[in-house]
Every structure is written in structure tokens, then in C-alpha cells.
UniProtKB/TrEMBL annotation:
Gene Ontology MF terms: peptidase activity
Region of interest called Disordered, as start-end residue ranges on this chain: 249-270
One Pfam family hit: Band_7
Protein name: Regulator of protease activity HflC (Stomatin/prohibitin superfamily)
SMART domains: PHB
Family to which this protein belongs: Belongs to the band 7/mec-2 family.
CDD domains: SPFH_eoslipins_u1
Domain Band: 21-179
UniProt KW keywords: Hydrolase, Protease
One example of a Gene Ontology biological process annotation: proteolysis
Assigned GO CC terms: plasma membrane; side of membrane
Length: 270
């Protein structure tokens, strides 16, 4: 009796061990590729419980989500001989789980190495201005360079973004001086344009006052109002220019040293 119970216990234990070895759980965002004795067996398994042949099947789980992979900063020399460091981020997704298991060893490392090499290539083919201002075009170029080999591995490159461009300190100072000089130039241009417009307005006002005496009187009254509004002790009395000219003509000339009165000259005012 004891022998029978021992045999039953052993059988149950073996059944539990075999069940644990043959049952696997595949998550919703995964696919399972089964190799039986090293050979591809059947189609990729979907999410849920899946049964394997103990000691014969080996399950490879593949993540089917969009994966974010940062690319370490790569140092290179641009086409205009500037040393920079550029880092990026790659978004990719597996679309063929069989290819990434059978077609390439460690597809994640393969994508990272290709991304680093492509980034260094882009740096060498681009000017500094392109790296700073035309990132969208460079991102598209990187995406194409990565997508060509990745397609054969069952991977789709969703997008590539250049994150940061690190410049040498000397280049940063040079660009800062250049930007400051450009701002100074724009400021001077704006000031000159303002002075030109002001001079044109003043010239136009002078022409109006020269042709219309009433405009001069209006300006005189406006000046008096402004002075009075300042609450100071200055008193402004308008004195017509025509009266000054009349007094000048009416004043007799000073006698000469010999007592003779010089002849009066007639002055024509413009």
C-alpha cells in the first residue's frame, strides 16, 4: 500500500512539473515564436495560455509594442569642420516576430548599432546650420537609413528624432557674438528708419507752415498751452515777426562819425 501511494505521489509530482514546463503565458502585447528541436514550429502564438512540448519546444516572446530606444551621443565633424556631439531617439515596432527571432541575433542591439552609425554619417554629411535649423529633414534622412536594413529584420522604424546638438564652448561664444552683432544691426536699422520717417514728417510740417500763416499761429498757441500746463514761472508772449520787420524799417539809422546821416536803404524781405 505504501508503495502504491509513493508511486501515485511521484506520478502527480511529475505531472505538475510537466504541466509547469509546458504551459506558458503570452501577454496581450506579445507574440510567441516556438522552435521545436531548433526548427520553427507553426505560426506565432497569440496572447493567453499556450502549451509546449516539454524538453522539445522553446518559446521566444517578442514585444510588438512601439519601442523607444535612445541613441547615445555620437561625436563627429560636420562638413564645415565643426566638432559636435549629437544624440537622438528611435521609435520602432516589430511587425514580423518570426524574422526578428530567426533572421537576426539580438535585434535590439542591431538596431542600436545601425542607429549610431547612421547618426555619425549624418553628422559628416551636414553643415552646422543644417544640424541646428533643418532637423526635420535630417530626421527623415536618418529614418530612411535605419528603415532599409530594419525591414529585412521584420522591424518598422516609426520615426527618428535628433534630440540635442552639443557645440564646443568656443563655437558657442562665437555664435553668441554673432547673434549680438545681428541684434545691434537690426536695432540701428530700426532707429535709422524711425529718424527718416520723423524727418520726413518735420519737412512736411515746415512746408505747411511756410505756405499757411494760420498753421504757424496754431503751432504758437499749442506751444503756449503746453508751457502753461507745466505750472512753471515762464511767461511766453507771442510777438509777430511782421511787427519786428516793421520796427526795423521804421528805426532811423545811426549817424556816421562825421555827423552825416547815411542814406536809407530799402530792404526787401523774402
Amino acid at each position: 500500500m505504501d508503495v502504491v501511494l509513493a508511486i501515485v505521489a511521484i506520478v502527480v509530482l511529475l505531472a505538475v512539473v510537466l504541466a509547469g514546463a509546458s504551459i506558458r503565458v503570452i501577454d496581450q502585447f506579445e507574440q510567441g515564436v516556438v522552435l521545436r528541436f531548433g526548427k520553427l514550429h507553426g505560426q506565432p502564438r497569440g496572447p493567453g495560455l499556450t502549451l509546449l512540448a516539454p524538453a522539445a519546444d522553446r518559446l521566444h516572446k517578442v514585444n510588438m509594442q512601439v519601442v523607444t530606444m535612445p541613441v547615445p551621443a555620437q561625436e563627429g565633424i560636420t562638413r564645415d569642420n565643426v566638432t559636435v556631439k549629437v544624440d537622438a531617439v528611435v521609435y520602432y515596432k516589430v511587425y514580423d516576430s518570426v524574422r526578428v527571432v530567426v533572421g537576426v541575433q539580438n535585434y535590439e542591439a542591431a538596431i542600436e548599432q545601425v542607429a549610431q552609425a547612421s547618426l555619425r554619417s549624418i553628422i559628416g554629411k551636414s553643415d552646422l546650420d543644417d544640424l541646428l535649423s533643418n532637423r526635420e529633414r535630417l530626421n527623415q534622412g536618418l529614418e530612411l537609413m535605419l528603415d532599409n536594413p530594419a525591414v529585412d529584420w521584420g522591424i518598422h522604424i516609426d520615426r527618428v528624432d535628433i534630440k540635442d546638438v552639443v557645440l564646443p564652448e568656443s563655437m558657442k561664444r562665437s555664435m553668441s557674438r554673432q547673434a549680438e552683432a545681428e541684434r545691434e544691426r537690426r536695432s540701428r536699422v530700426i532707429t535709422a528708419e524711425g529718424e527718416l520717417q520723423a524727418s520726413e514728417k518735420l519737412a512736411e510740417a515746415a512746408r505747411v507752415m511756410a505756405t499757411q500763416p494760420s498753421a504757424r499761429q496754431l503751432r504758437l498757441l499749442q506751444t503756449m498751452v503746453e508751457v502753461a500746463a507745466e505750472k512753471n514761472s515762464t511767461v511766453v508772449l507771442p510777438f509777430p515777426v511782421e511787427l519786428l520787420r516793421f520796427l526795423e524799417r521804421s528805426t532811423p539809422p545811426d549817424p556816421a562819425p562825421d555827423g552825416r546821416v547815411p542814406a536809407r536803404t530799402t530792404r526787401l524781405d523774402a
